[in-house]
Amino acid sequence: MNDKHIVSSFDRDLESIQASVIKMGGLVEAALADAITALKTRDVEKAAMVRKGDRFIDELDQVVKTDAAKLIALRSPTASDLRTVLSVMEISSHLERCGDYAKNMGKRTIAMADSNEINGTLASLGRMSQFVEAMIKDALDAFVQRDLEKAREIIARDEEADQIYNTLFRSLLTHMMEDHRNIAVGMHLHFIAKNIERVGDHATGIAEQTIYLVTGQMPDDDRPKQDVPAVDTSESKG
Amino acid sequence: MNDKHIVSSFDRDLESIQASVIKMGGLVEAALADAITALKTRDVEKAAMVRKGDRFIDELDQVVKTDAAKLIALRSPTASDLRTVLSVMEISSHLERCGDYAKNMGKRTIAMADSNEINGTLASLGRMSQFVEAMIKDALDAFVQRDLEKAREIIARDEEADQIYNTLFRSLLTHMMEDHRNIAVGMHLHFIAKNIERVGDHATGIAEQTIYLVTGQMPDDDRPKQDVPAVDTSESKG
């Protein structure tokens, strides 16, 4: 049974803003998928489209921010409702940044169009990208449903994303050490991997907003995050 | 002569929020300077302090966002004033992200504490960091003074920051190719260089908000940005 029989004007306005955020999420997922496809297939045109398409994500971010501000101005929401609007604005910023990462992947695909592939790396990047796309999608679902458990589960998944990134980091380093012709392209692939890993961080940021909304407190930020592998300068590998 | 004899309540509230943003700017500059010093002197404790100190920048960001929302709720500002408050919120987000980059530099300094130095790179990183610190400071000045010329000059300076980054990118690549023991530490230094370059982008983002406020239009985002060097896979260098 639903306790809330009367939907307030505030709720209606908020839902319309949330719809824009969900739309942004869809664009971000598509941009990431297209960026990876462009990278895998050396499709410079598709990469250029991802790069240009980021404009639409940026525009939606502006729409969300402006609509949210108008809602605040019009309804003067109190503590909890105000927090909700601020959360929606923060989530919009997270998605806008994810769009920037997809755009950067497009740029790098164009820059490395004529380079050699490094064995297996593109497949790993593709899997990692699918993993964080799902995190974004689920983080938005958790937000819309105010689902605390789902939100916490996203944060746990980010540790897995970090581990995938670290494995890829070490694998790329090995390839670069084995053949110096791999170094330049390895650098770009590293940055692409880092971009994808950062999308996972933003999914976590979105999940944290949900936790904040439901519990009134941000989760502790000091969890041990393994996103900067230590440097092993020994030469024992060779 | 000042045309505005009567300072509105809105202006007073806004000034107090702007003061928080300026304070954030100061913390970001200090965090960047400390992160570079920690890197140069292999000072793991200082690096850890930078990492922890990011919390204060994040907290100020929260304060700015909440105060801005309260101002909107209380005063229901109209078009131009609303735009100003939204700009202050965006600038706060830019600074928060700069804080994240300084924090990441701290993390990387800790991760590479026992590695070899790559000739001259730390000095270059130091110069690049001072360059973007000044950009942040001047971008905030331009915003407070609504100085269109100054804001445009920041955007021009970002091209120089990109060039410094590209030079450093190529120099690091060369070192990595010459001696594979440089590869792992070179990767970390690359990411640090990229972090610094991104701070320049955020200074540009702040300058763009000023241009938006004064002219009512965002500057064209499609300027040719040289922040992703093309990959040269030929071996002619060796």
Automatic annotation (TrEMBL), chains A, B:
Compartment annotation: Cytoplasm
GO annotation (BP), single: intracellular phosphate ion homeostasis
A GO CC term attached to the entry: cytoplasm
Gene3D superfamilies: Phosphate transport system protein phou homolog 2, domain 2
SUPFAM superfamilies referenced in this protein's UniProt entry, alphabetically: PhoU-like (SSF109755)
Annotated segments matching region Disordered: 216-238
Residue ranges of domain PhoU in the record: 22-108, 126-209
Alphabetized UniProt keyword annotations: Cytoplasm, Phosphate transport, Transport
Family of this protein: Belongs to the PhoU family.
Function: Plays a role in the regulation of phosphate uptake.
Quaternary assembly: Homodimer.
Record protein name field: Phosphate-specific transport system accessory protein PhoU
Species of the source: Sulfitobacter undariae
